[in-house]
Design brief:
Blueprint lengths: L7 E3 H11 L1 H15 L3 E3 L5 E6 L5 E4 L2 E3 L5 H16 L3 H4 L3 H9 L7 E3 L1 H21 L1 H12 L14 H20 L3 H11 L8 H4 L3 H15 L1
Helix pairs in contact: 1-5, 1-8, 2-8, 3-6, 6-8, 6-9
Length: 232
């Protein structure tokens, strides 16, 4: 934080953190691909019985005991809640101390000269990430969400027996999240920050003075040390 009270972020550590958190949208993408396009039936290999018959293509026909596959998303829900915590933890200086990825990325960036930038654009980007995660949480937990909404409304607004959200919504969102985090960690391009800049240009949001906030802490330390030596 600078003298004017503006909260800053170390861009080097932020990019490292984005690379660490990249594993979350990657894991959720693989989960959704398996849930949407994966096999829906489980075959008991011990129950396979040769019928001694063939189909029109000459393939041997077997009889087997099969059950319809069901998905249980408690692990995915826990991962999403952790990702939501990480997005929210970076919003303030105090809560950032509770984030494992912030602590790890700060440690990994300790030997690299920090690049200080205003935190406001990154807060906006993380709020977008938190929104995407919240939508995915709703998709993976339709029954609890439906029960909660219907309980508040006092009437059945959402079905509690089937998923009310089309599968393509979270599938697109996880790919968007994966692309955003990859661009930030690899290319150093923050899409959320660019959207924040656009809103600032449109007058929707207020922008901090980045030139004033881009402080060289090492240079300040050298000047303070020189002043102390001069005063002796």
């Amino acid at each position: 934080m600078n003298a004017a009270g503006a909260v800053l972020r170390n861009e080097v550590a932020v990019r490292i953190r984005a690379g660490i958190l990249l594993i979350i949208p990657l894991y959720m993408t693989l989960t959704l691909i398996d849930a949407i396009w994966g096999t829906r039936w489980i075959v008991d290999g011990n129950s396979l019985v040769d019928t001694y018959e063939t189909d029109w293509d000459g393939h041997t026909i077997y009889a087997a005991q099969v059950v319809k596959r069901t998905w249980e998303y408690s692990v995915q829900t826990g991962v999403l809640f952790y990702g939501l915590f990480e997005m929210l933890a970076g919003m303030t200086v105090f809560t950032s101390r509770l984030s494992p990825t912030i602590l790890i990325s700060t440690f990994l960036a300790r030997k690299t000269a920090p690049v200080w930038k205003p935190l406001a654009p990154k807060r906006f980007a993380w709020s977008i990430g938190a929104t995407l995660i919240a939508v995915c949480l709703v998709f993976f937990n339709p029954v609890p969400v439906a029960d909660f909404v219907n309980g508040l409304a006092g009437q059945p607004l959402l079905p509690d027996t089937v998923s009310f959200m089309p599968y393509w919504i979270p599938l697109i969102l996880v790919w968007v999240c994966l692309g955003f985090m990859w661009m930030e960690s690899v290319l150093g391009f923050c899409v959320g920050c660019k959207v924040h800049a656009l809103f600032v240009k449109l007058g929707i949001l207020k922008e901090e003075c980045e030139a004033c906030n881009n402080i060289d802490w090492d240079e300040i330390a050298r000047r303070n040390a020189a002043k102390q030596l001069a005063g002796k």
